[in-house]
Amino acid sequence: MSVVQQQFRATHVVIDSRAYQHNLAVVRSLVPNKRVMAIIKSDGYGHGMQLAADALNDADEFGVTCQDDAERLRRHGVSKPLTLLSGRYTAPQLSQFGDRRWRPVVYDDTQLTAFDNLSAGAAIDVWIKIDTGMGRLGFYPHDLADVYQRLRSNPRVGSISLMTHLANADYPEHPSNRYQIARFKESLSQFDFAEASILNSAGTLGFSDSAFDIVRTGLVLYGIAPQARGHATALPLKPVMQFRSQLLSVRAMSAGSPIGYGSTYTLESDTRVGIIAAGYGDGYPRHAPTGTPVYVNGYTVPLIGRVSMDLITVDLGTVDARVGDAVVLWGAENPVELVAEKAGTIAYELTCGITPRVERLTI
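That's the Alanine racemase sequence above. Prediction below.
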């Protein structure tokens, strides 16, 4: 265990590195004989990129945002191939990719120009990204032939693979999913690509029959269910992150008492109120409304009133809770998916939003 001494604030994050390995095994069971690209961008979805890379060492490769992420991982000692999912780069920057085993995703004419301006050097394996319906990054399928030939004729280009991204993988019944898969298959048939990839986490759960060569999984590796699929406990996943704190104060309060800034909530009956050492200064969502679940001493209780910078308030009711009792803001006992749903956001935003002042423990 990596121990972080808790000197002042009780609020902390616990990262269970063993859960990564369990979740990776779940992914492999869904798409046997397929390669897994573990997506660890945005500092491993807020879990710590280097730690995620260490724990997911059995993944086939990693996906990151840009050169900065890739450089951090190489300095950390990660030797696996790295796919750079976005980012801009000049020809001098690009010239280093081959030796470093960085595989850029090519989605724009400016990137093709950077390849045109390369001098001699090690071959660079690339992904071409096409936009089959996401409306974000990627070449249109009707431009694929020109893009492919331009890259294939470049002596610095090694293998060429093809990817796209599903816009509605979270909603498996959405008709755009099968439409995008069909467009991708049509594009894939035009040339001899080294690898093909279309599925993210939600797609891997819903369309494993279209896994092609490699899946790009992020969220499920952190033990979080994709949106519209319930929470992770409904799937054989284990949450990696536990966001925890303690009760700072327990007070008996009378019906009619206002709670928090703006007095936006008034107690409807006499009750016991708990004050918890956590707030938006730690990454707890300020927009979380009254009723957002908080787990205190073995019971789920509702958040009441506004979230402050350092504090939140819960209605303890008849729960036997005392100062110093453990609180789970989200984690195994209080799924982050449920907290996010109540707060009108997605789990990604919550885990990525943990602030630097929050101490971290790794088990």
